[in-house]
Design a protein that fits this description.
single chain; 9-stranded mixed sheet; 3-stranded antiparallel sheet; 16 strands; 18% strand; binds zinc ion; binds manganese (II) ion
Amino acid sequence: MPVSDYLVTIGLEVHCQIKTKSKMFCSCETGFGFEPNTRVCPTCLGLPGALPVLNEFAIERTLLTGLMLGCSSPEISQWDRKNYFYPDMAKNYQTSQLDLPLCLGGEVPLYPWSYPNDVIKAGVPPFRTVKLTRIHLEEDAAKITHHPTYSLIDYNRAGSALMEIVSDPDIETPEEAYAYLKSLQQILNYGDISDADMEKGQMRCDVNISLRPKGQSELGAKVEMKNINSMSAVRRALHYEIQRQAEELDLGIAQIQSTRRWDDENGESTIMRTKEDAHDYRYFPCPDLVPIHTAPLLEKVRNQIPELPQQRQQRFISEYGLNEYDANVLVSDLELARFFEEAAQGSTNGKKIANWIINNVAAVLNEKGITPSECPVKPLAIKELIAIIDDGTVSNNQAKEVFNKMWDEPNLSAAEAAKLLGFEKADSSFLDSIIAEVIAANPAKVQEIIDGNDKLLNWLTGQVMKAAKGKANPKIVTESLKKTLGL
Ligand code: ZN
Ligand code: MN
């Protein structure tokens, strides 16, 4: 039967590194790019007898994430040991949470601007949220790099604070899974919980997917794919699995609970192992760590809840008069939203500023692969630039040249850059004399314009621009021509 006769059920488990100065259970420094195995101590190396000390800040950040996502917290939260043998976890157990995680329930909104671009163009589905099961805190493992005849282990990452956000099996399409990850990433950015950059491994995603025929209430056997490293790869992997499972079910091949490896290069998944269950890990409460009373910590972080993307989108529309599309583009990237707001602050020109940032600044940043905060042209310079477009010093096209000039020489103000490029607010006598000359030289065409030929007015504007060597502002030239000709 066609794929559309199957119900698809998807759940996501997202691991996210929390931005902290030190690790979860020791005071070793966290960070990226250090000499391997230089940020280690007996605790995060798992040496016998070493004892863990809780990082309270990491706990607070996890609780804050829960508040942002509408979770509740059990009164007492507890640590458990998840036992397994692998060189990336030298203690042979991961300190994690099983029965009493820091956060329960909650939901992730699927923002309309978080869907893949092709979906946004075709029209996003109605707004919905995806239910969460839980968020718990645990420690990250070491990083292993495999080589043909040997492997290298770097324990710098071992013991870093890692938050695991588990969704209910409440996602129905690969596109929703994509939007879920992107929305979650934005929320984590807005809360300054994590940069959640998937390319840097700060956010890592495991997917669960099962199919069942329409009408069957019991879920099908779930297939898990671990550590898929981009949102678009998650989307591709899920499409592939839906197709594969539907074809096998059609042939009467029952699915078994299993873990598969997604090979994004070849676009296929292959079986790794049949799935272990939670009881295989022999979880038990960690005797080295005391349970946590959540109430006082929740009280402490409650006033740290930031403005979230959806609220900011609404505010951009009401405060700056933006249309929905522009507001969506800006809030989807926290840095871009900040860049806009700095440029628009105290200006009545928010709409124009937003437009210019989206169509010109963001486009150049994308092309050069740099972020808004790295942009050499600062928000205030953009504000000035819009002001000199408005007062007629430069046209919109000339403004792009001014922008490029400021990009190369960031110390210049917009007015200074415009002046260096020869774009000056023409004093009217200079422009008037050129206009008079051009009118005198084209009597027949001028008559046609007076008789109502608007197209010729553009042509005449062009003649004046030519005579002014492109230094005049076409809008102002047209206006002056109209005035002179009494139109
Ligand atoms: Zn350590
Ligand atoms: Mn985990």
